[in-house]
């Protein structure tokens, strides 16, 4: 691994100069670029790579000094003192200007205490930093010092990304220019920490929260923001855990995009979601979807659906739809009057609920139905025709990986009953990964062409509710 420190670099540069590596100014093609363009290019490279560019030619010797970006890993240095010496020397070039960005990474086998790191971060953040990323590979079981208080009071900060760090509670937080915040697998010393951090950002537009079930986290997640445009909540562990009661409360009236990928939270309360919002929903309410019974708290599903009922577009997972199918045995779905686009993933056993789902979307224009690849043998029939098929549905796409013929039953249903249909597309898997590894590309292309022709022939035997519809088949 290459070790960076200023003294070592100077020795290397002088050695290359003595060998005649630097013979003239502008000896390479890039040197013809203006300084501002070269600085922009270097700003997107790790600092260890930026430093080595000074060996290219005399034009480059001092160019890297002016780059207001640090992208540093502790492992690039012999020890932490080398890091301090290098950054102190480099920041001298920026003592009268701001540090545009710092990306700082450190791994599990840390050779220095977190207290020294936070003290160093305090000095760096005071340089009117605009973009900050701190990426820790530390185990959460390790005793870690919290992020410095100056982080909560940085008036110049525009974007913030923190991964696997500790955040303390401070009553006063002020981040007036922060627009993007990504918080990934962090430890929050109390529930108010995260809530205060979000509410202290008056122009926050993009928020991503990644949570992990391997350590204590906020039980009630409250996201309240009058400026938030995009919010993603991701829980990075998929198995069902008994006894947890995470809850999510969202009040962000300007949200244009919401993603919930959370199998654990038992309740989602969403208020004031705008009519132009698009949502991507994959939630599991911390239940075993293959063993649902009447003791399941159906009111949680009702709250979620009610909170989403004003959205314009929705993608929804097979897991969530399986829970909704259980809910529909007892309660009706709310109406989604504004919804014009829907992407729904169905287990075959849940396809019977499709007409009921579509009936709740009277103004739907486009639908994508994805069929989950599970070994199910179900008799599929549809007894009703929703209003949207007769008056508004213009685009239908079916994506099938099942290979059991259900996609043709579904295709027939849409083609025969969609009276204003303009485009119909069927995407069908005909090769498994194992199959693809056993055939040549030329054979694969020929088989695909034949299969697409045969599928088109079968689709051509179905009656058409709309004579103007265009039909396409993609085999893969």
Describe the 3D structure.
- This protein has helices spanning 6-18, 35-43, 47-52, 80-91, 114-125, 191-199, 298-308, 318-328, 354-359, 387-391, 406-417, 433-436, 441-459; strands at 69-73, 101-106, 131-136, 159-163, 166-167, 180-184, 187-188, 206-211, 220-224, 230-235, 247-251, 257-262, 267-271, 278-283, 313-316, 341-346, 366-371, 395-400, 423-428, 470-475.
- The two termini are 43 Å apart.
- The strands form 3 sheets. It has a 15-stranded parallel sheet with strand order 1-2-3-4-6-8-10-12-14-15-16-17-18-19-20. A 3-stranded parallel sheet has the order 9-11-13. It has a two-stranded parallel sheet with strand order 5-7.
- The chain is 27% helix and 22% strand.
- With 476 residues, it is of the alpha/beta class.
Query: What gyration radius follows from the Cα positions, in whole Å?
Result: 28 Å
Helix content: 25-40%
Q: Would you identify the regions where 5 or more consecutive residues have pLDDT less than 50?
A: 1-27
Strand content: 15-25%
Would you tell me the structural class of the helices and strands? Answer: alpha/beta
What kind of sheet is the major sheet?
A: 15 strands, parallel
Number of helices: 13
What would you call the shape? globular
Distance between the first and last residues' Cα: 43 Å
Structure summary, number of beta strands: 20
Whole-number mean pLDDT: 83
Query: Largest sheet, order of strands side by side?
Result: 1-2-3-4-6-8-10-12-14-15-16-17-18-19-20
């Amino acid at each position: 691994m290459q070790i960076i420190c200023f003294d070592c670099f100077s020795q290397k540069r002088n050695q290359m100069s003595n060998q005649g590596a630097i013979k003239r100014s502008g000896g390479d093609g890039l040197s013809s670029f203006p300084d501002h363009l070269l600085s922009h290019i270097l700003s997107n490279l790790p600092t260890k790579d930026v430093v080595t560019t000074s060996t290219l030619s005399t034009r480059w010797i001092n160019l890297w000094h002016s780059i207001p970006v640090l992208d540093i890993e502790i492992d690039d240095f012999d020890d932490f003192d080398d890091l301090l010496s290098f950054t102190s020397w480099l920041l001298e070039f920026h003592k009268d200007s701001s540090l545009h960005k710092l990306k700082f990474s450190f791994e599990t086998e840390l050779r220095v205490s977190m207290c020294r790191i936070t003290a160093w971060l305090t000095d760096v953040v005071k340089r009117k930093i605009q973009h900050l990323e701190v990426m820790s590979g530390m185990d959460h079981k390790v005793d870690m010092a919290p992020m410095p208080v100056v982080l909560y009071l940085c008036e110049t900060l525009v974007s913030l990304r923190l991964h696997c760090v500790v955040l303390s509670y401070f009553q006063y937080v002020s981040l007036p220019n922060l627009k993007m915040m990504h918080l990934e697998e962090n430890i929050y010393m109390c529930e108010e920490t995260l809530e205060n951090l979000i509410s202290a950002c008056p122009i926050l537009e993009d928020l991503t929260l990644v949570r992990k079930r391997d350590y204590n986290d906020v039980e009630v997640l409250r996201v309240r923001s009058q400026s938030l445009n995009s919010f993603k909540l991701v829980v990075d562990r998929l198995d069902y855990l008994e006894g947890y009661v995470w809850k999510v409360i969202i009040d962000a009236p300007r949200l244009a995009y919401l993603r919930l990928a959370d199998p654990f939270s038992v309740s989602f309360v969403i208020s004031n979601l705008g009519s132009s919002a698009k949502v991507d929903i994959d939630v599991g309410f911390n239940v075993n979807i293959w063993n649902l019974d009447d003791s399941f708290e159906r009111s949680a599903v009702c709250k979620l659906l009610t909170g989403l009922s004003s959205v314009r577009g929705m993608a929804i997972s097979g897991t969530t739809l399986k829970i909704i199918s259980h809910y529909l045995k007892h309660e009706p779905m709310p109406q989604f009057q504004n919804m014009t686009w829907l992407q729904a993933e169905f287990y075959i056993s849940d396809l019977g609920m499709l007409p009921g789902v579509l009936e709740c979307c009277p103004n739907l224009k486009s639908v994508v139905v994805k069929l989950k690849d599970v070994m199910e043998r179900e008799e599929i029939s549809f007894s009703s025709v929703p209003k949207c098929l007769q008056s508004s549905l213009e685009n239908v796409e079916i994506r099938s990986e099942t290979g059991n013929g259900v996609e043709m039953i579904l295709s027939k249903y849409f083609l025969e009953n969609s009276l204003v249909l303009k485009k119909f597309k069927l995407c069908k898997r005909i090769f498994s990964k194992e199959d693809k590894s056993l055939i040549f590309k030329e054979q694969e292309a020929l088989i695909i062409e034949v299969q697409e022709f045969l599928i088109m022939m079968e689709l051509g035997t179905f009656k058409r509710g709309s004579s103007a519809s265009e039909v396409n088949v993609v085999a893969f």
